[in-house]
């Protein structure tokens, strides 16, 4: 297990305690602190993901698959993570309706990103069934 996770979890717990305390005094500052903590943790996670991304790229390169599939996978991961972060921030701020719309926008972006893959699957199915 990566020992850096303890630092991230510790920072999150401290930020959570501060946010709970601030919420009693000034709610706006608590939301801002939560958002800053979420962004900091997100940046930490993205930095930690670099070896994972390199391994996915190596796996795609070692196969005969089109590199476009690896790009779609990585972009989808990025969209999912960013969408979740924004949605959670909206919900933490009490804006559940906006958070729900952010989730919907993320899903639309994932479908749009995946269209070339769907097209490839459909053409493969047509080739298989026409034989």
Which structural traits does this protein have?
131 residues, mainly alpha, 2 domains
Describe this structure as you would to a colleague.
This protein is mostly helical and 131 residues long. The protein has 2 domains: 1-48; 49-131. The chain is 90% helix and 0% strand. It has 5 helices and no strands. Helix 4 packs antiparallel against helix 5 (96-130). It is elongated and about 70 Å long. The chain starts with a helix and ends with a helix. The chain crosses the membrane at residues 6-22, 29-53. Keywords: Membrane, Transmembrane, Transmembrane helix. It comes from Yanshouia hominis.
Structure summary:
Keywords: Membrane, Transmembrane, Transmembrane helix. This protein is mainly α and 131 residues long. It contains 5 helices and no strands.
Question: Topology, pairings included?
Answer:
Blueprint: H1 4-25, H2 27-48, H3 50-62, H4 67-92, H5 96-130
Helix pairs in contact: 1-2, 2-4, 3-4, 4-5
Structural class: mainly alpha
User: How many β-strand stretches?
Assistant: 0
The portion of residues assigned to helices is over 70%
Give the rounded overall mean pLDDT. Answer: 86
State the distance separating the first and last CA atoms: 50 Å
- Overall tally of structural domains: 2
Query: What is the chain-wise order of helices and strands?
Result: HHHHH
